[in-house]
Design brief:
By secondary structure, the protein is mainly beta. It is built from 3 helices and 16 strands. Strand 3 and strand 4 form a beta hairpin. The relative contact order is 0.25.
Length: about 190
């Protein structure tokens, strides 16, 4: 019985110590420099990706969302600004969905930076070209805001942690994590 309990504890996907989640450090990473905020997400290996099959056109089928913030009293407190990418459900032009590479999937995503807290709740800071992505082989993508106004807003908040969430139509692939932001001195 003791061995079964130890095996169960060892294989828990998320163990929280204060703000940060462990066991997901190979899945989530975040970094800041003087001019950039970047979130790194892992993704499952697939030759072919499928999207646009979700029957709810206003819900995201795939999404990668990052919210910088701080760890206060063992809890994550968001800064109120998020950046990310998402692919909504059915596209009426492609009723049977789409298939393609990871790059094609990401290229079709909506990209945005927005406020999450009042008084400017859900106010869009930037969209489209305001967020960039890059695929890092073999299994990571990075997303970062590139709109200078948005980057300044994010970096001026003295954030220490980042809450990150990947949503997939395959539930067991989805995950959430909170990681400490690594500060880099890039020139």
């Amino acid at each position: 019985m003791k061995n079964i309990l130890l095996a169960f504890v060892f294989y828990l996907p998320i163990v929280s110590f204060g703000c940060e989640t462990t066991k997901l450090s190979e899945v989530c990473m975040a970094s800041y420099s003087k001019t950039r905020a970047v979130a790194f997400f892992s993704f499952p290996k697939r030759e072919m990706w499928e999207w646009g099959k979700n029957s709810y056109p206003d819900r995201y089928e795939y999404s990668w969302i990052s919210e910088p913030g701080k760890c206060e009293k063992g809890k994550f407190v968001g800064s109120g600004v998020s950046f990310g990418m998402g692919i909504k459900g059915i596209d009426r032009n492609y009723p049977f969905g789409k298939k393609g590479s990871m790059h094609e999937l990401l290229a079709s995503a909506d990209r945005s930076i927005f406020f999450k807290k009042t008084p400017m709740k859900n106010r869009l800071l930037a969209s489209g070209d305001g967020v960039a992505f890059k695929i890092h082989e073999p299994d990571y993508i990075s997303i970062q805001p590139i709109d200078q106004k948005s980057v300044s807003t994010i970096l001026n908040k003295n954030n220490t942690h980042m809450r990150m969430e990947y949503k997939s139509p395959i539930d067991m692939e989805s995950y959430k994590c909170v990681v400490k932001i690594e500060h880099l001195n890039l020139r």
